[in-house]
Amino acid sequence: MKTSNWNSIPVDDFWQVADDLQERALQSAESLFALAEEANPKEFISLLIQYRFFTIYYTTDLAILIARLTEGRLRSFLGELLFDELGRGNPLEAHPRLYDDFLRSIGVTDQDLDSLAMSANIGLLNAVRKSLSDSNTSTTYGVGLRGMGGECVCQVYLARLYEHMMKNPYIQHRRSVIDWRFWDLHVGPHDIEHRNKTREIIHDEIVVQGPEALADLGRGYNESMVSWTTFWTNILDSTVSARVRRVAV
To answer: Crossing angle, helix 95-105 and helix 41-68, to 10 degrees?
Structure first.
């Protein structure tokens, strides 16, 4: 999954290399996306609830990244994204809250919201935060980890997941009573605009600096892609293992 020698990549080729790496990560998650189409209600809820913890961690991680950045266009823009993530002054519109409201509308209980967290994935999220907070890592690395790896990639993953989950019979049956606000934001023009703007500013402020900046940015992005892939693989493996245990009983 890793791309080495980011510092040897021509500036004009950087985003193509990053997109190729992202596409390989998406391909590795295809089995999970396929599972989202045919999972039974219990499996479906268990699958979707895991992303809840990414949304919770991402909001705080974005704040940590902003705190580490120096004044500039990127810091100000990420501040706007954080304001948006937090509901633009209304906690009921904060994105983690909207995702919880979506989960409740598909049958998730308040007890499930916390009890179904996978410890392996929480460990991954904690490891990413530790890397982001480490004073020995550069802010450019942090931008690759949580700017490119969060804002730029998250929308692509969610769009693919949404495409598949909409084919699930459980979703089709409940479609009219589901709270779609989270998905309206994250698979529509709102998040696509954020993704494109984030890339533009990262390019203008970091990529154009050349080899040293590209090396740190690429390392952070690599770690993010590895974490994403492991995150979804853990969910898939857990679901498959549960199926095997049921058959064996």
So the answer is: 180
